[in-house]
Specification:
Elements: E1 2-6, H1 11-28, E2 31-36, H2 41-46, E3 52-55, H3 61-72, E4 76-82, H4 87-95, E5 97-103, E6 119-120, H5 130-140, E7 167-170, H6 182-196, E8 200-203, H7 209-218, E9 223-225, H8 232-240, E10 244-248, H9 251-258, E11 263-266, H10 272-275, E12 281-283, H11 301-304, H12 308-318
Parallel strand pairs: 1-2, 1-4, 2-3, 4-5, 5-6, 7-8, 7-10, 8-9, 10-11, 11-12
Helix pairs in contact: 1-5, 1-9, 6-7, 6-12
């Protein structure tokens, strides 16, 4: 059986899809073909349950789209799963040569993609964790005994000559409203050094470099700054070698969970029940505006109200 998976999206979305892929391979013996964007391509292409990773680069779509279309039309798939539920993914699903095309139920679709002529999985709680929502596809295909695991390969060689026992502070977030403060991270790093006698390692993307510099300036003796310096492959090894991961609501938070690390997630506007760490500790203040799900906010009181002491209470449980 050949299954084509359309899941282009963000790092966290891709990681939350892996348990579904593992169960499709385990129970159906399927050959998995996966269309994914460049950011998550290293994880998908290296995974033992993915037989064929197809990279769609939307930044260079004029060149990439014909290549992807040629690839997905070069064979017939038994199933095509639209897990992205947006117009772009639905059109790719329609373009593939597939015997069956399956998508989310109407309530969980976006951009009116419920209008596409796909089989629809039964309606389910749209607020339950996304790992479980993706596994709804396995249940629809008759797989009842679903195991939740990620199986991301780790080489075990931590790059950058890092010391043992460090705590990762992942400072970035795609949505500005999800970010914690430089002062909060700096204070936490100093207190981790004082309390546990271990350093903190900063991780994040290129756009977080300025924030990392401010954190380092405030707590230079407690910080190893790797922001903007890690590939996805490097990040896997850095997270895997840590004693704990403190992260805002973003992809590396889910990656830490998938690697079996103790994760402490700092949450503001989003619902951690749906997009939080599948396993781990969540810090979120109970405020009147909680759950607003805003991307930006002029007064992000939900994140500003998180204190370094709140994080230390969770770290005491795991270190």
């Amino acid at each position: 059986m050949d299954i084509l998976v359309i899941k282009l999206g963000a790092l966290g979305d891709v990681i939350n899809t892996l348990p579904l892929i593992i169960n499709l391979k385990r129970h159906l013996g399927a050959r998995i073909h996966w269309v994914v964007e460049p950011l998550s391509f290293p994880i998908v292409s290296a995974h033992r349950c993915v037989d064929n990773a197809i990279c769609f680069n939307k930044q260079a779509w004029k060149q990439s789209l014909p290549e992807v279309l040629s690839e997905i039309r070069s064979r017939r798939y038994d199933l095509c799963l639209d897990l992205q539920r947006i117009t772009k993914s639905a059109l790719l699903c329609m373009a593939a040569k597939a015997t069956r095309r399956i998508g989310f139920d109407r309530e969980r679709c976006k951009e009116m993609t419920w209008l596409f002529p796909f089989e629809r999985i039964p309606a389910s709680d749209p607020k339950k964790h996304m790992v479980l929502q993706y596994l709804d596809f396995a249940e629809y295909l008759g797989i009842a005994d679903n195991e939740i695991r990620w199986d991301i390969p780790v080489k075990g060689s931590v790059p950058f000559n890092l010391p043992e026992g460090y705590v990762v502070l992942n400072i970035g977030a795609t949505k500005a409203a999800n970010k914690w403060t430089p002062g909060g991270f700096a204070s936490l790093a100093e207190e981790v050094r004082e309390r546990y006698h271990i350093p903190c390692v900063l991780t994040g993307a290129g756009e977080d470099i300025k924030m990392a510099a401010e954190i380092t300036r405030r707590a230079s003796n407690s910080i190893i700054d790797l922001v903007g310096k890690t590939s996805i492959e490097d990040l896997i090894e850095v997270l895997a070698g840590s004693s704990a991961v403190v992260s805002c609501d973003t992809g590396p938070m889910h990656l830490g969970v998938a690697l079996g690390k103790e994760v402490i997630a700092l949450f503001g506007p989003a619902n951690p029940r749906r997009t939080g760490p599948y396993l781990g500790h969540v810090i979120q203040k109970d405020l009147a505006c909680s759950g607003c799900n805003k991307r930006t906010c002029s007064d992000p009181v939900c994140m500003l109200s998180i204190r370094s002491e709140d994080v230390l209470e969770k770290l005491d449980l795991v270190l």
